[in-house]
Amino acid sequence: MSNALPILILKTGATHADIRDRLGDFEDWIAAGLHRGGAASVTHDARSGDALPPLDSVAGVVITGSHAMVSDREAWSEALVPWLQQAVAASVPTLGICYGHQLLAHALGGEVTHHPNGVEIGTVQVRLCTVAMEDPLLGPLPAAFNAQAVHWQSVRRLPPQAVLLASSDHEQHHAFRLGRNAWGVQFHPEFSAEALRAYLDGLGPTLAREGLDAERIRAELKETPEAASVLGRFAQLAIETQTGPLPERSA
Prior knowledge:
single chain; about 250 residues; alpha/beta; two-stranded antiparallel sheet; 9 helices; 11 strands; about 30% helix
């Protein structure tokens, strides 16, 4: 572990200041999950315009969520596309979360736009596709599991060669794999129920315009330990890719 390279958290956005002051930011939540899997992490703010680290300096990459929209094609976001293409081509373990999931799909030839049925928000049930049962990242999950979700945009068409891994009633493309070592998940493995509750506190009027009741969604939030386990398992896969299989970890 001491000689292992860190996992790069590619920061594409930040939570609201009041949430950050109380609970931390996206990269803090992701880093905690990676640490549970035995990995150290470093963060690079992709919006800064600073040069991205060389791929051979990191054990893997996690792309955060964002309040931005992939379809806006912001310059900093589009600048990540060739780097992500190189990461996938080089089989660098890569995990995109929400915006990161959509950006990864966009970078590899998929289509991202607003979901025709509006926002998916709350604790949702995600179901694995049959092929996912053998997937190294999602395969250990139950066939159906709860996850936190909040997104207006969606991967409407998967990239060529992508393997669909999971769906929900609202979202067909909740998870996919590209090649051997790249995954996108629309759900938020890093979000606790408390974090999503904090988002709902400020979204009442916005959700009401879509015919949704923020208080009802808030009351139905659950903790999502199965979804959260994805980060620790990704950390283990990234370390194994670099150093070989880890010893068995106790429960």
